Amino acid sequence: MPRELNQTVFVAGHRGMVGSAIVRRLQALGYRSVLCAGREELDLLDQQAVHAYFSKNRIDQVYLAAAKVGGIQANNTYPADFIYENLTIQANVIQAAHLSNVQKLLFLGSSCIYPKQAKQPMQENALLTGLLEPTNEPYAIAKIAGIKLCESYNRQHGRDYRSVMPTNLYGPHDNYHPENSHVIPALLRRFHEAVQASQGEVVIWGSGNPMREFLHVDDMAAASVHVMELDQNTYQANTQPMLSHINVGTGEDCTIRELAQTIAKVTGFKGQLSFDASKPDGAPRKLMDVSRLRALGWQATIGLEEGLSDAYQWFVEHWLEARK
Questions:
Q1: Low-confidence residues in the chain, pLDDT < 70
Q2: Domain ranges of the chain
Q3: Which entry of 63, 114, 139, 235 is annotated as an active-site residue?
């Protein structure tokens, strides 16, 4: 499908890690009208404000990357915030897009939508086939609702609202909060501070045995734009009416122990790695089946060590901002 560079594209959540990467990708491809709005301009939790924003701006496409996100501890501590805010943002943006006759929208979900004991690698048809991981169930349920919102507007109103489910993401503009961050930014910060303080040991949460898949956010942005730009017939031929989401990942995983060893290498840490098995591991393994996305002509290009080096460089360059 020809790239429609003159269309107005609204990226909801442009200051976040994923949203900012999508903006960079769109601008690099030559999109001339990429619309962004910070929270001071548009509160996505305010339904009336969201509807007014869509009415004011002639929007052609929407990337719904706005979300409340966090690691295991954040999900455990603030479950009500995670389910309420994500449900509200999704409902507000998708309904406003529909009422403003926006035909194309891409919703960004999460691999946590799949059951804790889903067969590995996880295929799209594993959705709603078992119990979710308890530590992030509220967030996962919100993301499942987002998928079903898109499917429902397609069925009832003939919209072209698509969903992509990324694996664990990392990269520039990640959240490096010492308590509420995901595993890669948490470890990058911990190892960096250990190097700066000449510490001889870094303690990692959990046993180190769970296996995880990691995708650099620039790859995620490239995949998102690729899926959005697909011809509708091509997209629909690789999905089903009640199974319209597509996995995005590398198709490869590693143990948390192997991840920590790679981060130690990237950050220059020479000390001992210790694992605190009293802390929760989460799901034993989370690997995405990305055969559907590959069939649609896209696959990841950034290797883990290369991507971690890029993320660490951004962290060091933005130390004062990132450490808050």
A1: 1-2, 241-242, 320, 322-324
A2: 8-322
A3: 139
